[in-house]
Amino acid sequence: MKTLFISIKIFLFFTVLTGVIYPLFVTGIAQLTMPAKANGSLILKNNKIIGSELIGQRFDSIIYFTSRPSAISYNPLPSGGSNFGLTNAKLKHSVDSLKNQFIAFNQLDGNTTIPSEMLFASASGLDPHISQKAALLQVDRIARARNISPERKQSIIQCVKTITEAPQFLLLGEERVNVLILNLELDKIDANSNTNTTNK
Amino acid sequence: MTVLDFIQIILFFTLLIGLTPILGNFMYKVFTGSKHFMLPVFGWLERVTYKFSGINPDEETNWKSYTFSLLMFNLIGFIFVFLIQLFQAQLPLNPANLPNVSWHSAFNTSVSFMTNTNWQGYAGETTLSYFVQMIGLAVQNFVSAATGIAVLLALVRGLARKTTDHLGNFWTDLTRSTLYVLLPLSILFAVVLVGQGVVQNFKTYDTVQTIQGATQVIPQGPAASQIAIKQLGTNGGGFFNANSSHPFENPTPFSNFLELLAILLIPAALTYTYGKMVGSTRQGWTIFAAMLILLVVGLSISLYAEYSSNPIFGHLPLMEGKETRFGITNSILWSTSTSAASNGSVNAMHDSLSPLAGMVAMINLMLGEVIFGGVGAGLYGMVIFVILTVFIAGLMVGRSPEYLGKKIQKFEVQMAIIAVLAPNIVILLFAAWASVSSPGLSSLNNAGPHGLSEILYAYSSAAGNNGSAFAGLNANTVFYNLTLGFGMLIGRFGIIVPVLAIAGSMAGKKKTPSSAGTFHTDNWLFIGLLIAVILIVGGLTHFPALSFGPIVEHLQMNNGITF
C-alpha cells in the first residue's frame, strides 16, 4: 500500500513538473525571445497569413515554380509520405509519369535529367524545398507564361540564385531553394516589370 | 557521396565519442550522490520531490521491492494516459476539437509511451489534444527514460557491490535521472530547437489562404518541449505524424544534426558511467566499442545500398520519402541511429528505404536494441549479452565463467536466456500470426516481399521498444493495436524483470580477486567475441524471416521486378 501511495504522489509530482511547468517554461522563453519562430514562421501579406516559411504549398500553376510531389497534396492534416517500397509498381508508374509531366510542362528536351526530388514524394508531404537545378529548369517556362522579356528573365535566374540556401554553416545538409519564398519574389519581380511597362 | 557527406558523418561520430566521457562522468556523479554543478540549481527540487511523495532517499531495497516499485509506478502511468485519451473531448486544451480516442488505440498508445517504445498507431495532429500530448505523453517520455536508467543502475550496483541485497532506491534513481539529466538537457535542447524554427505555442491551428488560392490548415502546438525529450530519452514519438521529417519538428540541417546527436547521446554516455561505477572505465569503453562497430558496419551497408543504382530507377537518387534539406546521407545516418538506439523517430520514411537499408534498420531492432539502445535499456540489454559471452567463453576453455569478479551461474544464465528470448518470441510468433490472418494482411500498403517486411518491422519495433515503423502498414486496427501493445509489454518487462533478478543475485555474491587465469572482459578479443555472440543469436533467430522479406526483395529489385 505504501508503494502505491508513493507511486501516485510521485507520478502527480512529475506530471506537474514535466507535463505542465516544463512546457510552459519553454513556451515562455520561446514566446518572449523568438515569437515569430515559436509561432510557426508565418508569412504575412497585406496583414493576412499566406503560409509558413517552413511548410511547403502546392504549386502546379504554369506561372509558378512547381513544388515537390506530395503524397498528401500539401494538406498537413495529417502529414506523411507515400510509404511505397522501391519494388512497388505504383511507385515506378508514378515516377515515370511525373517525369513525362515535368518534361512536357516545362517543354524540356526529352533527355534532360530531372532532379530526383521532383519525381519522388517527400517524407512529410510538406517539404518546402527543391534543388536549385530543379528551379532553374522551370525558368524558361515561367518567363514564357508570364510574357517576361529576356533581360527580365535574367533577374529571375538571379533571384533563384539569391534565394538558394547553401548547406547550413557550409557544412550540414543540402543546398536547397524554398519554393514559397521564391514564388513570392517572382510575383514581386513580375509586378515591378508590369509597372515599368505601364509607365512607358 | 560527396566529401561533405563524409565530413558530416565524421563530425557526428567525433562529437559522440567526445561527449561520452563528459556526460558520462557527470551522470556518474549524479547517480552516486556526489557533488555536481546541477545540485545548486535543482537540489531543492529533489528534496521537494521526496518530501511531497513521502520518500526516504536513504532507504535501500532488495531487488524484489525495487521491481515492485517500478512496476507499480509504470502501472499508474499507464492507467492515467489511457484514461485521459478516452475522455480528451471533455478535457481542456483541445483547440482542434478532437474526439475521444478509441479504446484499443488508447491502450496501444499508453502501453507504447509507458514502455519507452513510442510506437504510434495514430497521427498526432489529427488524434490527440495538446492536453494529452503534454500531460500524458510528454510526462511518459521523461519517466519511461528514467525508468530505463533506474534498471541499469540497479544492475550496475548488483555487479559492483558484494554480499548484499541492497540495490539502491528506485525513487531516488527515478528522481535524479529526471531532475539532473533529462530535464536540464531537454530545456536546453528545446530552446535551441525553437531557434531553428520548431513551434512552441498553444494557438489554434492556423488556416491560411495559399498563393494559389487553396486553403491550408497549419497545425501548431507545444512541439519543441516534447521533441527535445523525445530525442534525448530515446522515445521517438513525434508530435506530428511525419515525426522528425515534418518541417515544424525538424526545420533545418542544424536542428537535424542536434536531434540526431540527441538520439545517441545519453545511451553512449551511460557506457562511461557504467565503467566508472564498476570501477574500470575500460569495461565501459569495451562495450562502447562493440556498439560503435556494429553501428558503423550497419551504416556502411545502408549507405552502400542507398547510393547503388538499380534496374528499376537507374542512377536516380532515391528521394522517395526523404526531405530535400536532409538529402540521402543525413536520412540514412538517422535511420541507422534511430533503429540502433531504440529511439524510433524518423526523418525519412523507412518504408521507402532501399531493401538493404531497411533491413539494416530491422536487424538493429532484432538484435535486441543493444547497439547503444534505449536510455538505460540498451546497456542493460548489452550486459545480458556480455553475461552470455562470458558464459560461452567459459564453456569453451573449461573454466567457471566470471564477470567483474562475480561468478556467472545457472540462475544468471537462465534469466539471461529469458531476457534474450522474450522479444524474439514476440517478433516471430506475432509476425507469423499477422502474415497468415486476414486482419493482419488487410493493413498492408505494399505487395510482395515488402509486405512481409512491413509486418516483420512492426513487431520487431514493438518487441525492441523502438517505435519506428514501415509506416505504410495501417496499424490503427483492433488487431494491430492489441498484438503490438502486448508485444511492447513483453519486450519491456520480459527483460526488465530478469535483469533485476540477475542484479539481485549478483549483489549477493562474493568478489573473486582477479588472477592470472581470469578471462579478461576489457580487450579486443572480448569485443570480437561479444559481437559474434550478438550476431549469431540474432542471425540464427531471424535470418529465415529476413530472407523472405528484405533479402528476396533486394534480389528482385536487382532483376527489375516490381509488384
Task: Tell me what the structure shows.
The complex is a heterodimer of chains A (200) and B (563). Chain A is built from 7 helices and 4 strands; from the N terminus they run ααββαβαααβα. Chain A is mainly α and 200 residues long. Chain A folds into 2 domains: 1-39, no CATH class; 55-199, no CATH class. In chain A, the strands form 2 sheets. A two-stranded antiparallel ribbon of chain A has the order 1-2. A two-stranded antiparallel ribbon of chain A has the order 3-4. In chain A, strand 1 and strand 2 form a beta hairpin. In chain A, helix 6 (150-163) packs antiparallel against helix 7 (179-199). Chain A starts with a helix and ends with a helix. Residues 196-200 of chain A have low confidence and may be disordered. Chain B has a domain at 375-558. The two termini of chain B are 29 Å apart. Chains A and B meet through helix 1, strand 2, helix 3, strand 3 and helix 7 of A and helix 1, helix 2, helix 3, helix 5 and helix 6 of B.
Number of strands of chain A: 4
Q: How many structurally independent domains of chain A?
A: 2
Residue fraction in strands of chain A: 5-15%
Could you state the order of secondary-structure elements of chain A as H and E? Answer: HHEEHEHHHEH
Q: Hey, which two chains have the biggest interface? A: A-B, 93 and 124 residues
Question: Whole-Å distance between the termini of chain A?
Answer: 89 Å
Q: State the helical fraction of chain B.
A: 55-70%
Instruction: Provide the residue-averaged pLDDT of chain A.
Output: 93
Rg measurement of chain B, Å = 23 Å
Kindly report the spatial arrangement of strands forming the biggest sheet of chain B: 1-2
Number of strands of chain B: 4
Task: Give unreliable regions of chain B as ranges.
Answer: none
**Biggest sheet details of chain A:** 2 strands, antiparallel
The rough form of chain B would be described as globular
